[in-house]
Specification:
By secondary structure, the protein is of the alpha+beta class. The protein has two domains: 3-112, no CATH class; 171-368, no CATH class. Helices cover 50% and strands 11% of the residues. The protein is built from 17 helices and nine strands. It has helices at residues 3-11, 68-71, 114-124, 142-170, 175-202, 205-211, 215-225, 235-251, 272-285, 289-295, 299-305, 312-315, 333-355, 360-369, 376-384, 392-406, 415-421; strands at residues 20-21, 27-32, 35-36, 44-51, 54-65, 83-90, 105-107, 317-319, 322-323. Strands 1, 2, 3, 4, 5, 6 and 7 form a seven-stranded mixed sheet that branches. It has a two-stranded antiparallel ribbon with strand order 8-9. Strand 8 (317-319) and strand 9 form a beta hairpin. The radius of gyration is 28 Å and the shape is elongated. It holds the Pfam family DUF2851.
Length: 428
Amino acid sequence: MPEDFLYYLWGFQKFANTELRTASGEELRIEHTGYRNELSGPDFFNARLEIAGQLWAGNVEMHLKSSHWYEHFHEQDSAYDNVILHVVWEHDCDVFRKDQSIIPVLELKNLVVPEILENYANLLETPHRFINCENDFSGFSDFELEHWLERVYFERLEDHSAGIERNLRKQSGNWDAVFFQYLLKAFGLNVNGEAFQSIANQVPFTTIRKIAANQDDLESFLLGMSGLLENPKDCYAESLQQRFEFLKHKFQFSEETIQKPVFFRLRPDNFPTIRLAQIAALYSENTQLFSGVLKAEGLSEYYELLDLSLPEYWQQHYSFGTSHRSKNKKLSRDFKNLLVLNLFLPFQFAWSKYRGEEQADLILSILAQLPKEKNSIVENFENLRPGTVKNATHSQAVIQLKKHYCDQNRCLKCALGNKLLMRSREYH
């Protein structure tokens, strides 16, 4: 049994909490359980308890056994001086503060009804194929599922926003610089995202801005920094290489630490040569792309921002030296949807949070128009409960749910997991 289960029992008061007594026989009344502490120090802060008729305010520490207090050396840590109650599953020894006063102990082992323990074992200790609650997933109501998935989606946006904020600090608050970093990563997708982003990390954004004024310069810069202009195979590649060498000398930057992108197992439309050329076309035509994202009021305006036109060379090539029948390589609708999901909406949310504005309705209205994503996580949730994933809100949410709850066995922090744990008779 992990200590997380004790946190759940204490925080939700899932034990017989009338006529409580400490291990030494003193009457105990819980006025407030306190607030869960996710950092170092006692597990719950600012609890209010009445022990033997005396009202106490302070912290609560939890362990599977009382003796774990000493195993963790809490008796030597002043952060635990204000612990007013030690909540344990099994009381196996008395615990003392530095001043040798005894800390009251509440043992839960005989206070928890069997149903809770059975539900816990069924949920977290039974072998499963995909997720812990797969046998019960179809039984959740539409309201329960919809409410939780929306909340989890915005939690996903919060995670994205935290990453954007960290990069903002590194870029001295320059939103355009951070947006360009994420633009590169988004175009590289999972395979080349980190490699593309490493270009922006290597060169000051002020330099990139100067280069971006000319599409040919930006294209040669991106391809050259990625190492894709080495040993040019045709005249177009040679001209880009010459332009890149000029820019490298002019602005004094080096491509030595750049992670080189790969072609392996990529469809031609996702070749790094094509994606980098598309970035050059898109960004050189609209260096104020981030401002455009913020001003957009709907999905159609997002799509318009992503319209681009590649040079004629790229209409007949996927890579240097090998031509094909002419094909217009504009961004597909599916790829535009990915950029909206993984770039535009996270930045819209982060910006509105930074400004103290509310954009939830706009974001949800756009998401409702986007089709659900196609991946193994979405497919497996659909197999468990057909109709679970109706649009992009749900597909983004189930990805967050699977990676940050299910895969980490965080059922005790999941509203759906809590619903299953609380399937027991009333005992308060």
